[in-house]
Amino acid sequence: MKSVKAKPVRASRTKADHDSADARRGIQSIEVGFALIRELSLAQSKLPLKILAARADMSPSKAHLYLVSFTRLGLVVQDVVTQRYGLGPAAIQLGIAAINQLNVVDAAHKHLEAVLESTGVSVSLSIWGNRGPTIIFRLDGQLPVPMSVRIGFVLPLLSTATGRIFMTYLPEREWRSIANAEEAIAPGRLARTLQKVEAFRSEGITLTESETHEGFFGISAPVFGSGNVLCAAVTALGLSADVDLKPTGPVAVAIRDAARRISRDLGCNMPDLGPPAPVGGSK
């Protein structure tokens, strides 16, 4: 009679075993290729293949293969004239989607709508990005604003009310390199701005007029989150001739109060915030 060899019995794998293996395995090629996307997000402008590949620590031929796929997906675009690479429309859509999922946007929306209704000026919300103050949300009023100021726009640090808020409340190591770059273009501006920091703190707002755009003003206030750490800035922007720009004026008061309300909604418990005044009312 022919003997039958028994098959070895394999030990059953638990869900934890599968999860652990999946966590270890991942998709290495995605992780490698994403280095190119990361370097493009950090770049000030589009990059040639050779420089982009070097920054991502890979050969140009290898980088090119990834870039072909990223281009097909819309994550990357290549300039037809210079042949340089930059982030594409799909990357922009992903960035905006991520921004829209931030809790700070949800917390700010109704308060900025209240400012818009009471003052009529355009208002925006900005966070600190890897290249500086970045607009992530905006509501347009009836008064005109510069076309360049849009969602995703990175604002100057020293010459905008928004930038000065981050400079006032963030550690110096966060903004020093950006400030130095702007100082090289406009010598003396850094020193003049630093002289005003204590006044910014005491007034709870920063104000600029005709700095980056002739005839336009910016009034900004800090938003603090849980742990009382600066997480954003709310800013009013419009034509200087149409608005009372005093720190006690209706726009300044509305922006300051909106920042207070948003901070409270985000879990800030700083005692110096004080009770919120009605939007448009006195402090």
UniProtKB/TrEMBL annotation:
- What domain of life is recorded for the organism? Bacteria
* Pfam families xrefs: HTH_IclR, IclR_C
Q: Which is one GO molecular function term here?
A: DNA-binding transcription factor activity
* Classification via PROSITE patterns: ICLR_ED (PS51078)
Per UniProt, the keywords (alphabetical) are:
DNA-binding, Transcription, Transcription regulation
This protein's record includes keyword DNA-binding: yes
Region Disordered: start and end of each range? 1-22
Cross-referenced SMART domains: HTH_ICLR
**A Gene Ontology BP annotation from the UniProt entry:** negative regulation of DNA-templated transcription
Which InterPro entries does the annotation name? GAF-like_dom_sf, HTH_MetabolicPath_Reg, Tscrpt_reg_IclR_C, Tscrpt_reg_IclR_N, WH-like_DNA-bd_sf, WH_DNA-bd_sf
Biased composition annotated in UniProt, kind: Basic residues: 1-13
Cite the Gene3D superfamilies for this sequence.
3.30.450.40, Winged helix-like DNA-binding domain superfamily/Winged helix DNA-binding domain (1.10.10.10)
Q: What is this protein called?
A: Uncharacterized protein
Q: Which lineage do the record's taxonomy fields give for this organism?
A: Bacteria, Pseudomonadati, Pseudomonadota, Alphaproteobacteria, Hyphomicrobiales
